[in-house]
Amino acid sequence: VGCDRSKNLVDICGEKHFQAFVCDALSVPIRSGSCDACISIAVIHHFSTAERRLATIQELARLLRPGGTALIYVWAMEQEYKNQKSKYLKEKNGSKNKDKEMNTGTAQRPLSDPGPDNSTQDSAWSDQLLKDLNDESSGAKPVADFRLPVHTNRTSFHSQDLLVPWHLKGGTKKKEESVDKMLVPGGSKELEELSPVFHRYYHVFCEGELEAVCRSLDCVRVQKSYYDQGNWCVILEKL
Length: 239
What we know:
Layout: E1 2-4, H1 7-15, E2 20-22, E3 35-41, H2 50-63, E4 64-75, E5 80-81, E6 84-85, H3 87-90, H4 95-102, E7 108-110, H5 115-136, E8 161-168, E9 180-183, E10 191-194, E11 197-203, H6 209-215, E12 220-228, E13 231-238
Parallel strand pairs: 1-2, 3-4
Antiparallel strand pairs: 4-13, 5-6, 7-8, 8-11, 9-10, 12-13
Keywords: Methyltransferase, Transferase
GO molecular function, one term: tRNA binding
Protein name: ALKB8 protein
């Protein structure tokens, strides 16, 4: 049985005759102690506070029967580990071919490079918000710069908390959806559609961080902790 926050993804599972439902990882509507095993892949790194990340692992443990196991994968800060580059970094040179493959469907793909237009737009929005907050403070101490860095895809991470650009490609645009347009270089009157760009929040984990969070729980024990292609992974057992 699978679950996801995205209704669209769950609908795809339904079309393929898989059992799946929409829910929040912080509150899974499954009876406590009823699962032999649970898998959480690339989920917990999207929670923006340490408290929420811990609560998500607690919820995962609640679902397990005594002796049941859970496998957790999160994105690693260390994309180069033991002198080996992760698959994520290695794919930088071949990203053009991979992009072509992914553009044939309706999936989202990470941008190989956010580009000056996207970063400028994001920066301008943040600058205006910061200005508005400072204006509201009426001469009080300026508000601290809270902006998160926008990651350049297929590069090493320079911050644990960041935004990763995702470019929506393929699929059929609904009538009510608006798509940005720009003039094609060279003065042509033709318009080229720009796919929308979204920024997803990530907290990438440092070595030992995920394991330490898991060990803080009394109801589970860490069976194994390891690194796998740019991810930190833990296997837990319910006590």
